[in-house]
Design goal:
The protein is of the alpha/beta class and 248 residues long. It is built from ten helices and eleven strands. The N and C termini lie far apart (46 Å).
Length: 248
């Protein structure tokens, strides 16, 4: 029999929750540690849609990257994500910044998806670097990233330099540009502000802002294969949820 705690303990063994950032709220957030788990729903975000999908399946556990609670809730209203989890007795575990920094986590998985070689972590950050199999123009690299991550919109800075070594930071890693620049030809991350990109353009450094959802969704859901190999009595189902932020 698999329990919520069994799954929590496994995630803790590969991506210790003690390594999460101070501002984060990863970990076991709702439900009963002792509850038997037969069905787990996985999603990047614990949105109302994902929670309602889990409720419709009578799922025992919702496993997400982002937590349903970052700060204390002032109200829990009917129809909200948190209300749905509690009302349907669905436990919730979030593997957030602890999974970002893990060797099997977001950025290493992102490197696998992009088929990078010689992947290594940059000390003092969430970031990893890796080499493309062959050097590419920034236009070709941006198109490649878009195709691999199913980006519906992508922003980047132009450069005449060929790109060989890239730095990766899934989600919001804009504060690490200065760490990424000295050790890469291009920094690929999720969210970048206009002036950050403008400043990099002036310096001739390539940036690709591929989207928060796009740079984390597939890398997080790669955890499913690891879980299925260990917990063979549990069904792991990916919630059919698209990027909630639309673009054209």
């Amino acid at each position: 029999m698999t329990t919520v705690k069994n799954i929590y303990d496994y995630i803790n063994s590969i991506a210790p929750f003690a390594l999460q950032e101070e501002w984060d709220n990863a970990g076991f957030l709702t439900g009963d540690f002792r509850k038997e788990v037969k069905t787990v729903v996985m999603a990047l975000d614990p949105t109302k849609e994902a929670c309602e999908f889990a409720a419709g399946l009578n799922a025992d556990l919702l496993l997400t990257h982002h937590p349903v609670l970052f700060k204390g809730a002032k109200e829990i209203l009917k129809g909200s994500a948190l209300y749905t989890l509690v009302n349907h007795d669905i436990s919730h575990i979030a593997a957030h910044t602890n999974f970002d920094v893990a060797d099997c986590g977001i950025n290493f998985n992102l490197a696998k998806l992009l088929q990078l070689e010689n992947v290594s972590k940059i000390d003092g950050s969430f970031l990893v670097t890796g080499d493309l199999p062959q050097a590419m123009s920034i236009d070709d690299l941006t198109q490649y990233v878009s195709d691999v991550l199913d980006c519906s919109g992508i922003r980047y800075t132009d450069t005449d330099r060929l790109i060989k070594t890239v730095a990766l930071g899934g989600g919001a890693c804009e504060e690490y540009i200065e760490i990424a620049e000295p050790c890469s030809d291009c920094f690929i991350t999720g969210d970048l502000k206009y002036h950050q990109m403008l400043d990099a353009k002036e310096r001739g450094y390539a940036l690709i802002s591929a989207g928060h959802f796009e740079t984390e969704n597939k890398p997080f859901l790669m955890l499913k294969d690891m879980l299925e190999k260990l917990f063979t009595d549990v069904e792991f189902i990916i919630a059919p949820v698209n990027n909630p932020i639309l673009s054209i």
